[in-house]
Amino acid sequence: MGKEKSGRRVADNEALSVGTQIRGSAQKLGLVAALIRNKPAGEAMNILQFSTKAMAVEARKVLASAIANAENNHNLDVDALVVAEASVGKGIVMKRFATRGRGKSTRILKPFSRLRIVVREQQEEA
Question: How far apart are CA 78 and CA 92, in angstroms?
């Protein structure tokens, strides 16, 4: 009597990786995610490696995890992988206060984001 195992959230030819609590705003991470959508996995890794955006470092880790999941857990061909989905969402927000002049204070918001990357094995066209 236990709870049944939940099914796969993606198709049989796909692999998923989710980065939770990535330090930075969802807007900045969304710009990086747009760079790699619908690109081959190897090309996406190169784009993130040489990007000047700071959020590209965290996005590259999540993409590398998705590729490793595809290879090790789902037996997919790494050379045929394409970034099928790269979606960003808001996470928690840490609230901090900074002291200001005349005994006042200002609120500082430190946002976190979530990144969900799905890689799909593309069939070779002959």
Answer: 33
The rounded distance, in Å, linking the Cα atoms of 6 and 119 is: 20
SS3 content of the chain, % helix, strand, coil (to 5): 35, 35, 30
Dump pLDDT digits (tens) for 48-104: 999 999 999 999 999 999 999 999 999 999 999 999 999 999 999 999 999 999 999
List the structure tokens of 5. Answer: 């195992």
pTM metric for this prediction: 0.91
> Are 39 and 83 within 8 A, CB to CB?
yes
Sorted by sequence, the CB contacts under 8 Å of residue 90 that are 6+ apart come out as: 26, 111, 112, 113, 114
pLDDT in tens, 23-40: 999 999 999 999 999 999
Cβ distance 112 to 19 under 8 Å?
A: no
